[in-house]
Description:
By secondary structure, this protein is of the alpha/beta class. The protein folds into 2 domains: 13-214, 3-Layer(aba) Sandwich (Rossmann fold); 217-339, no CATH class. The chain has helices spanning 2-16, 35-48, 78-84, 103-114, 125-132, 147-153, 180-192, 194-204, 222-233, 251-261, 306-318, 320-330, and strands at residues 23-27, 33-34, 52-57, 63-66, 70-72, 76-77, 91-94, 118-121, 139-140, 158-159, 165-168, 171-174, 239-244, 267-272, 276-278, 284-286, 297-299.
Amino acid sequence: MRGLLAGLAAAFALATGAAAKPLVVILAEPEGTEITDAFTPYAILAESGAVEVKIVAPSAGPVRLMPGVAWVAPQTTFAELARLRPDGPDVVIVPALRDEDDRAVLNWLRAQARGGARIMSICNGARVLAKTGLLDGREATVHWFSVGKMRKAHPKVAWRQDRRWVSDGPITTTAGISASAPASLNLLRELAGEPVMRATAQRLGLPPPDPRHNGRDYHLTLRGMATVVLNRAAFWQREDVGVRITPGFDEMAFATTLDGWSRTYRSEGWATGPAATRSRHGLTVLRHQAPPARFDRLVVPPVRNPTESTFGQIRTAYGELTARFVALQFEHPWGAISAWPT
Length: 342
């Protein structure tokens, strides 16, 4: 029945001259998928209304989101996507994945590229792409912390640090986590046009995408390493932070909040609310079946300027250096070494 309906819909589109929306799938790996890398492109593209976007995984089981404690239900699987879309998706987005060596995932990515799909990695998703060989002979970028290792492991790739995203042929790679928003807006501009991109950015309170960046402004310093050591050593101050979500929650705000509070080395973020909560654009997030009996802190994801607002919340709670170190991990301007207090 599903195949018949899909065929009728396609026939109707051809008869009426209606153009199908581009299909973008965001890869998710069950053992761990970076939440902001995945949810930010999803939120932006879904908000546009001009693109069909889905979370795809090798199997139908829940996907662990990282960092923090939450899961998401994939919206389709490799096999189901192949049945419903034999020609494959138009674009595949690759977040950072915990298991970078999953042969099934690497082979699937190679197959999508052979089928003509555009590929875009977010942050350390480029480490996965590099293992497929798809970056060989191309320019690419990756999270600042991974650049040195990637230059040694993949010398056939020309690694750059001067752009928030780098496009080389049908493949785009981005710098750190915070590049997910501008790179996704740029992708939207290419798929649906400048007016759609600008209207979407305005509704979400995002600035127009700007590729300018200096990745060399981001590196570990003694103060940064000392912040980590001190936060880890103060185990008695460790906190479980509940990130409250309700039906219709904003995906980007939730992701940034859970992500940020889980990178302080003093706290871990937990999705809290109903056992399964549906987001504004149709994602189902699952919380832990046995959350802490009591959270040390409850936070509400800030919808406007969620990244900067989350860093501000962390600064209020744990101080300037911890907030800057979280921003450094995001490769966000707050974390640039020149922005740290002297």
